[in-house]
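Item description
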Amino acid sequence: MENNSIKVLIGDDSANIGIRLAAQLRDKGIYAYTRKNDEKILCNSIFSEHPDVVVTSLSYPDSDAILLMKKVKSALGNPPAFIVVSDVYNRFIERQVIENGASYYLSVPYDADSLECIIKAVANKPVSSSCSDIEVIVTDIIRKLGVPAHIKGYQYLREAIM
C-alpha cells in the first residue's frame, strides 16, 4: 500500500485512546505506534525513531506541545509534521500552536478516518478521493504549493479558500 511509508508517533499510550487509534490507523495501512504522553519520552522517541508525523496532545504533565516542537525543530534539520490535539477549541490557541510549528490543530472528538486524511495531507502523501473534509483537502493543496503552516496569514489563507 502507498501508506506504508508513513510512520506516525501517537503521544498517548492509554488503551482507550492511543492504542485504539494506533490499531485503527494500522488497519488503514499506516505504521502507527504509541508512547507515553510525556515531553522527554516523546522527544527521545522522535530523535531515535524519526517518525513522519507526530500526533500529540496540547499539554503534558510538565510541559506542552509548543516546547516539544521548539526542541525538535532546533535539534533536527527535518522535523516531523505535528498534529496537535486538544479538548479545547480556541482560535487563539490554534494560532499559537500553528505559528510555533504544528501542521494541524485538531479538536476532540475526531475519528480515525478524518485523522488518516489529515496525516496524509501533512505527510505530503496523496489524499484519497474518499476524503470529504474540505479543510483537509485545502490544507493538502496549500502544502503542495509550498506554503508552510507557520507563516503569518496561513490560517486566513486556508479559511479564505474554504
Q: What stands out?
A: The chain is about 45% helix and 15% strand.
